[in-house]
Design a protein that fits this description.
Elements lengths: L1 H16 L2 H4 L2 E7 L6 H18 L2 E2 L2 E9 L5 H13 L5 E4 L3 H14 L3 E3 L14 E3 L4 H14 L4 E7 L2 H17 L2 E8 L7 H10 L3 E5 L4 H12 L8 E5 L19 E4 L8 H14 L6 H19 L6 H8 L3 E4 L2 E5 L6 E13 L2 E13 L5
Parallel strand pairs: 1-3, 1-4, 4-5, 5-6, 7-8, 7-9, 9-10, 10-11
Antiparallel strand pairs: 2-3, 11-14, 12-13, 13-14, 14-15
Helix pairs in contact: 3-10, 3-11, 4-5, 6-7, 11-12
This protein binds P-hydroxybenzoic acid (PHB).
Length: 387
Amino acid sequence: MQSLLKLAALAAACLTAIPATAQEPIKVGMVLEMSGPFADIGRQILNGARAYVKARGDTVAGRKVELIVRDSTGAAPDIAKRLSQELITNDNVDFLAGFGLTPNALAVAPLATEARKPMVIMNAATSIITTRSPYIARTSMTLPQVTAPLASWAFKNGIKSVYTLVSDYGPGIDAETTFKKTFTAAGGKIAGEVRVPLRNPEFAPFLQRIKDARPEAVFIFLPAGEQPVAFMKGFAERELDKAGIKLIATGDVTEDGMIDAMGDTPLGVVTTHHYSVAHDSPQNKAFLKAYADFVGTGRPNFMVVGGWDGMAAIYEVAKRLNGKIDGDKAMEVLKGLKLDSPRGPLTIDAETRDPIQTVYVRRVQKVNGKLYNVEFEQVQNVKDPGK
Ligand code: PHB
């Protein structure tokens, strides 16, 4: 008995003698919308993160990288919070990451602060998110950042009255507020405005109201995925285009992943955004190849790029900290970090931890028989204008 106890004590001592950091993977807890009506968002972000790991290898600074994926099931702040708490306490993750939808990101922000975990937002784009925790950094965009250049472009290009239609939650309200402010300051007029529910919006009555108001253009923001497809269908069915009403939007609406499902309705639509598959650069070519190697079919969209760049940021942190991840030191690396993104140059603002990037003005055109967002103007080094 005595010797057995000694043996057990020896075994325990051996176990604790193994340095944990040399053996354990760097764990990235990804909270994503993997099912429900917003499942496309989670799928795209995860494809981007996984394609990056495949392209760059699953080891950084001598440690393996492990992605632990949890399904928030949609705009479900309580679920996102519970899953993140479990990732922190049970899985002991080094990073929280993902977050397609604003309500989920906002719900988790206090947990990141409490646990001192860096939280990399790969999509959620309401301006206020990064102010909710000093441990948040964002590799996507903010709605004010991409909307202001569109409002300026519209007025400069002869559009004088606009009806706005947005999704009734954080990013939609940001888009509406920014559009109105920039457009009216330039001299434009808001012909009307409407907010549609985040869940299962029914566009037909709103489209009729807009048609009757006869604005020169309608500006819209809807979360990328199925809703813009339904909107485009209604826009064509109610013949707003034939009534001479132009459509302008943030790039969420004509994103590369869904544009094929929209028929020819988006042809000529002008949008502003930070990423297009059609962006002509060696970095984007390499990214598209890596994506094709990993996913095989379909086109990546801006959310794939958000996931890809989010992982690039995490790898950079791991490299600079020699594999020893510490929340506070990680944030010091993330602040001011520059990434050579497929979208163009990307800096994480040292003050706001939001992306500083080029915003492109694009027009939907057919290239070799397929619809693309073709960039024709750009504004460089755009910051979130509200901060
Ligand atoms: C968000 O919830 O913040 C969000 C979702 C989809 C988008 C953009 C923003 O396309």
